What we know:
Blueprint (H helix, E strand, L loop, with lengths): L1 H7 L3 H46 L5 H14 L6 H15 L3 E5 L5 H7 L7 E6 L2 H13 L7 E5 L2 H12 L4 E6 L3 H13 L3 E10 L4 H11 L5 E7 L2 E6 L11
Parallel strand pairs: 1-2, 1-4, 2-3, 4-5
Antiparallel strand pairs: 5-7, 6-7
Helix pairs in contact: 2-3, 2-6, 4-5, 7-8, 8-9
Amino acid sequence: MVSLLLISLPLLPVVVMATTLCHSRLLALCRRVCERVLRFFHGEVCVKSTHAYVFSECTHGQAASVLATFDLYARTHASVSIGPEKGEFVDEVVKREAPLRVLELGMHCGYTSVRILRLLPTSGKLLTVELDPLTAEKGEEIILVAGFKNPQFQVLTCSSAEAISSLPSQLGESCLDLVVMDHDPEQYLPDLLALQRGKLLSARCVLLLNGTLEPGAQALLEHVTARPQQYDIGHQFKDMVEIHCHMPTHSQGEVS
Ligand SMILES: C[S@@+](CC[C@H](N)C(=O)[O-])C[C@H]1O[C@@H](n2cnc3c(N)ncnc32)[C@H](O)[C@@H]1O
């Protein structure tokens, strides 16, 4: 018995490590299953009830009232909007960077879109992407209710990947100064790479990432931190972070 203990003692760290790894993977898996189940049951209800509440309770034509009504709704209902605190972080970035062309991936009911639009100059434009057609319709209506009109903004009802491939025709000669990613974290890195391949980011482009704890977002952060010449990680607030991209001008060649 003693000899058995002595033989197995060196294996103890391996056993502890393997158990911890399995445990954390299991926890991550459980968390994802719970999120999917909740999203399945709350998804449509959330969009319709958010839209109905904001539409009926806000003062039409006033972006501030639309945002305050979203925030009021989120106090008593499930909501995926970024909310007032992270919203102020977005505001700071938009005010500081003064972007002219903004791409939002993951519009949902338009909360972040309205926050951004109210700070854009008249020559600015927001392209906002939403995969789900019903959500896109409801979100667009809220943006119109807030007092914004086409062509200040355009809703692209498709996946982020499809939207990115259609961007050259949407943007013409312009490039994106700000990209907000709050859609599917697994798409964050592929979408960033596609934007770079298409040379769609301006030399001073800022990337705002929500949900930095998600594995997909972590993959993007690893990509970014491994390339300090191309990116700077800027301010962070909760699970939102800003990344400054130093894109070469077209004549300076490809980005890896
Ligand atoms: C967390 S919500 C965005 C919330 C929004 N930023 C706000 O503050 O109101 C994520 C949205 O992204 C959409 N989405 C998920 N995957 C997507 C994809 N691959 N392309 C475009 N939209 C996507 C979902 O349908 C959902 O409406």
